[in-house]
Design brief:
Elements (H helix, E strand, L loop, with lengths): L4 H11 L5 E3 L13 H9 L3 E3 L10 H13 L4 E3 L8 H11 L3 E4 L12 H8 L3 E3 L3 H8 L2
Parallel strand pairs: 1-2, 3-4, 4-5
Helix pairs in contact: 3-4
């Protein structure tokens, strides 16, 4: 339910009539950020799920976000990193995936942004053994469908 790619992935699954699971860093009865309450309801109405380790009403903390990141890695067949800085939260998920032996993929930074801080996490994960995915979606699809 985090803003950005997480929300886009959930919306994509819903648009494709596929169930999706949102791992959240808060207890039931809260939504963080609050403006995602409607999306949370849509996920449930479509047969998906919202999962948390926390008691009802628990607020988000940095520690609960990291615990959520571990849950995401534990319940994934693979983890795909789209774009993150070195200190971005997605780096926790990638680290947990590595520790759990899950396949890890990272989008390669575009040439013009290879040294940009917002792509530094991707470059680091690729150096640590994540399989690179081309920035060009068409090239990626061609490689996956061969």
């Amino acid at each position: 339910m985090a803003p950005g790619i997480d929300v886009a992935a959930h919306r994509g699954a819903l648009a494709a009539n596929q169930p999706t699971v949102a791992f959240v860093a808060y207890g039931f009865g809260r939504t963080d950020p609050p403006e995602h309450a409607e999306l949370e309801a849509e996920i449930l109405a479509a047969g998906g799920a919202v999962a948390t380790l926390l008691p009802p009403g628990t607020r988000v903390t940095d520690a609960s976000r990291i615990a959520r990141d571990r849950l995401q890695a534990e319940h994934s067949r693979a983890v795909v990193l789209v774009c993150t800085e070195l200190d971005g939260g997605a780096m926790h998920t990638m680290r947990f995936a590595r520790e759990l032996g899950r396949p890890r993929f990272a989008v390669e930074p575009p040439l013009e942004a290879a040294d940009a801080p917002e792509w530094a996490g991707n470059a680091e994960c690729i150096r640590e053994g994540a399989s690179p995915i081309p920035f060009d979606v068409r090239v990626t699809i061609e490689r996956l469908t061969v």
